[in-house]
Amino acid sequence: MQSTPATCVAALCGLALLVLPADAQSARSGSSRPAAGAAAGGAAAEGEGKLPFEIVSVQQQPSNVAGFGTGTQRIAVAFRTSASRGADEGLSSNPAWIDKPKVTLTLAYRPDKRRAVRVPASRTGAAGATAAAGGAAKTGAGATAGAAAAANSEFLFFRASATLLAVERPSSGFVFFYLPGEIVRRDGLGREPYAYIVEAEASGKTARVFRSKNLLKEDEFTGFKTMADTGALATSGLLRNSAQAGFDIAGGRNSPTVLRDDQN
After folding, report:
1. What is the pTM of this model?
2. CB-based contact 156:106 (threshold 8 Å)
């Protein structure tokens, strides 16, 4: 993804927060191994970075998968784990593994209303209203709230988590998330997020937070987290992991099994 100059200042709790466009590392589609991304800066919080599980890049790729609509975006979160030290670290019954690491992706987009797909005039009558009502019911309450957020906020936030069955040490792979094409086209989202963070945890230990390069300063990161914690509530359920999307083996051999919500 290409970085561009700073373009806006978002006010948060009386503070001015400078937010730059995201500078995620682009990757070749179908690559069997994750490319090492730029190191995520910022100081680690107390207890952070104790998990031998590292996020190395975030890559957004168009993915026209069946049932998700044209324009669906696939976000590939690349990770790697460090070798076991041979001692029981409380991460698995087998020290060469990490059980149930949870990866949480938070994205921020700046909707472009000029790119949003609009309903043709011929559908604005009763038939159009009926179709729109049916579409809203199909998509769910989250999409309706997302539309409201798009109308009232400069940014749209999306958040989803994926709990992996188990990950070997050392190893590398991808965790995939999907943003449905209907949402991308409806809200005029770009082909890359404005900013993002990725968090990982397992057995009470956390990995160092991976941030887009515009969030390396602590005030920027803190402001983003505060806005995202509130904003992501309005779009709950729209960003999905591969299990929620309906295909657990979306990434092939380098994509660990993602547990369904009822299996966590």
Report:
1. 0.71
2. no
